[in-house]
């Protein structure tokens, strides 16, 4: 995987199987009711010789956008007293369908989307003091809206992934995962296909959008004010209609721990 330094130039040709991940800069502060697709389209373009913007992205690229800027644009920002733990706890519970575990101020909850995560995704980082960001109401729909807006403005067929930071059960540290997608498969089913030795795979289903989100986070970071990244070189067979809600969220009937 190659990581480019800037979103202001097209990556060069890649060897077979390689990926390029490019941070998207220049988006600026996103506020409620901003046209996020328009802001991203500007950041994904450079001035041409005639002064008109020319997109530096191409068909088949995947744009990963952080949940935080999507929530800001959609007005999912609410006031909260950061020094009042009861207020935060009440907000988390209001965004949850059930609470699985409690430990001090930390709650592990299930959201209306079906996500199991810390504090229902309520986040006080990278927002104005005295406010909290909530998850988008329908992240798959948000991804489709951004994809359609970019297609109209840029004339390029991009896939879109909305990413957020999650912890992992039984593993330390956090990583980015996909909470909404458009134009890319959530899970690629390899069951029934041969592995490198010719043995038929029996149980392998790969959550490729989580892998793409994690790769993109390597160039976005948590403290760099980089709200998006372009991943180039994904397998074209992944580029189809997709949904986190339909493909990635595990049905309770198949869950051994809830």
Topology:
Layout: E1 2-3, E2 20-24, H1 36-43, E3 45-47, E4 53-55, E5 62-66, H2 67-73, E6 77-79, H3 85-94, E7 96-103, E8 106-111, E9 116-118, E10 131-133, H4 139-154, E11 159-168, E12 171-182, E13 188-189, E14 205-206, H5 208-220, E15 228-232, H6 244-247
Parallel strand pairs: 1-2, 5-11
Antiparallel strand pairs: 2-15, 3-4, 5-15, 6-10, 7-8, 8-9, 11-12, 13-14
Question: Can you offer a commentary on this structure?
Answer:
This protein is of the alpha+beta class and 258 residues long. It folds into two domains: 20-75 and 136-248, CofE-like (60s Ribosomal Protein L30, Chain: A); 77-134, CofE-like fold, CATH 3.90.1660. 22% of the residues lie in helices and 28% in strands. It contains six helices and 15 strands. Strands 1-2-15-5-11-12 form a six-stranded mixed beta sheet. It has a three-stranded antiparallel beta sheet with strand order 7-8-9, covered by helices on one side. Strands 3-4 form a two-stranded antiparallel ribbon. α1 crosses α4 (139-154). It is globular.
Q: Based on helices, strands and strand pairing, what is the structural class?
A: alpha+beta
Strand order of the largest sheet: 1-2-15-5-11-12
Q: Radius of gyration from the CA trace?
A: 19 Å
Strand content: 25-35%
- Gross CATH architecture of the largest domain: 2-Layer Sandwich
Shape: globular
Number of extended strands? 15
Domain tally:
2
Distance between the ends: 36 Å
Q: What fraction, in percent, of the residue positions are helical?
A: 10-25%
Number of helices: 6
Short description:
This protein has about 260 residues and is an alpha+beta fold.
């Amino acid at each position: 995987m190659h990581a480019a330094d800037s979103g202001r130039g097209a990556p060069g040709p890649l060897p077979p199987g390689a990926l390029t991940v490019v941070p998207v800069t220049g988006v600026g502060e996103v506020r409620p009711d901003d046209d996020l697709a328009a802001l991203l389209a500007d950041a994904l373009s450079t001035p041409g010789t005639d002064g008109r913007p020319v997109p530096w992205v191409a068909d088949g690229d995947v744009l990963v956008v952080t949940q935080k800027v999507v929530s800001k644009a959609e007005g999912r920002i609410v006031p909260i007293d950061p020094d009042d733990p009861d207020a935060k706890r009440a907000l988390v519970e209001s965004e949850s369908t059930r609470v699985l575990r409690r430990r001090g101020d930390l709650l592990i909850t299930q959201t209306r989307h079906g996500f199991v995560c810390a504090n229902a995704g309520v986040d006080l980082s990278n927002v104005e003091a005295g406010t909290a960001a909530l998850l988008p109401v329908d992240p798959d729909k948000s991804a489709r809206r951004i994809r359609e807006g970019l297609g109209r403005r840029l004339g390029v067929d991009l896939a879109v992934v909305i990413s957020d930071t999650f912890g992992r059960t039984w593993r330390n540290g956090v990583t980015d995962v996909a909470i909404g997608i458009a134009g890319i498969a959530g899970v690629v089913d390899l069951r029934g296909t041969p592995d490198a030795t010719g043995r038929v795979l029996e149980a392998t289903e790969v959550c490729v959008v989580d892998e793409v989100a994690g790769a993109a986070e390597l160039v976005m970071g948590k403290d760099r004010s980089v709200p998006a990244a372009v991943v180039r070189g994904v397998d074209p067979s992944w580029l189809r209609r997709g949904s986190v809600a339909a493909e990635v969220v595990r049905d309770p009937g198949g869950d051994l721990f809830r």
